[in-house]
Amino acid sequence: MGLVMTALIAWGFSRTVDAGLFHANPPRPLLLWMHGAAFSTWMVFFILQSALVGARRVSVHRLLGWFGAGLAATMVGLGFTVSVVMTRFDKIVLHQANADAFISVPFADMIVFGVCIALAIYWRGRPDFHRRLMFIATCELMDAAIGRFDFWFNNSIFYIGLDMLIVLGMARDWMVDGRVHKVYLYALPAMMVVQGLAVYMWRVNPGWWQAMSQAIVGV
Description:
Blueprint: H1 2-13, H2 17-22, H3 30-54, H4 58-92, H5 104-122, H6 127-140, H7 143-146, H8 150-154, H9 158-177, H10 182-203, H11 207-217
Helix pairs in contact: 1-3, 3-4, 4-5, 5-6, 5-10, 6-9, 6-10, 9-10
């Protein structure tokens, strides 16, 4: 699944990364490059950790896990910060109206990702909990790639795409273990509530969210 998600990222971002980052006009803030580097490193880390467990190198997996914890914390901080910086950029430089409403989506992603990683660290002694929480956390990042496809973005259904990845994990449990692990049964409904609220705040942009997002962005 790590390889599948990496391929999805490459496919989605290949559609926008040249005009939106590499040869962007006007140039994007340096922080966006740092954001991309950190999140790309996460995918390498996720695949490597899975491979180490498969190779029975659990001691190395655990040692690298603390690097992953630090990387995840950095990603959450970068995710919130870049969301604000790029929203300000969109409003001030690109003159995009109501750009601040969309900030609900990356904020929701960072909340779900951060909570899942924190729980995965807490339950690192429970491999069945730990690996599923790490998987769910990584899936939550996939809306950025899925949203690069116009149909999924314009119809506000990119979260459905990433939730389908989680359903594949549930299907694996059903086929291999004969039941779906309770981590999925608790996490996916909670995630869908957060995702639905994020899309509502973005697309409907109620007055209370307008005031809040404008205060967050400061523009």
